[in-house]
């Protein structure tokens, strides 16, 4: 380790997760019946914060969202955009390097594996040719 850090152990990881769940996972009632939402927004008021809160709907377990500081969220989006752009550039470079190589997989196999609708592709190519 470069810095004087305490090594992360399974016990400390569990306690950190439990602490996060206790303090940062809320249900709708926590936000509507208390001043918790105002407290969270106040936390974000003075400075950028990386503190996140998970809100879940107790009636629908798939109904979950994250409350995050707007500036922090914008920062995360900029990282995502940079990664997406870098991946696009890498894929473009790989495609350029491989453009003259012969494919080692038969097209029929690719179509079958990816469950590609050949008729839909033909329709789209006709549409493009007409334009």
Structural summary, described in words:
- Helices cover 60% and strands 8% of the residues.
- The protein is mainly α.
- The chain has one domain.
- A three-stranded mixed beta sheet has the order 1-2-3.
- A hairpin with a 7-residue loop joins strand 2 and strand 3.
- It starts with 9 loop residues before the first helix and ends with a helix.
Provide a short characterization of the protein structure:
With 131 residues, the chain is mainly α.
Query: Per DSSP, what share of the residues sits in E-state strands of 2 or more residues?
Result: 5-15%
The low-confidence parts are none
What is the approximate shape?
Answer: elongated
Strand order of the largest sheet: 1-2-3
Q: What is the total tally of β strands?
A: 3
Distance between the termini: 60 Å
User: Level of helix content?
Assistant: 55-70%
Radius of gyration: 24 Å
Number of helices: 6
């Amino acid at each position: 380790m470069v810095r004087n850090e305490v090594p992360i152990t399974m016990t400390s990881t569990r306690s950190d997760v439990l602490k996060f769940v206790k303090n940062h996972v809320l249900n709708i009632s926590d936000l509507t019946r208390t001043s918790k939402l105002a407290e969270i927004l106040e936390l974000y008021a003075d400075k950028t914060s990386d503190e996140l809160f998970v809100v879940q709907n107790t009636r629908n377990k798939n109904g979950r969202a994250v409350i995050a500081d707007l500036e922090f969220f914008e920062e995360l989006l900029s990282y995502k955009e940079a990664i997406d752009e870098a991946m696009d550039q890498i894929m473009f470079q790989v495609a350029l390097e491989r453009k003259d190589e012969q494919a080692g997989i038969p097209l029929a196999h690719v179509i079958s594996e990816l469950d590609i609708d050949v008729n839909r592709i033909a329709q789209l190519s006709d549409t493009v040719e007409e334009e």
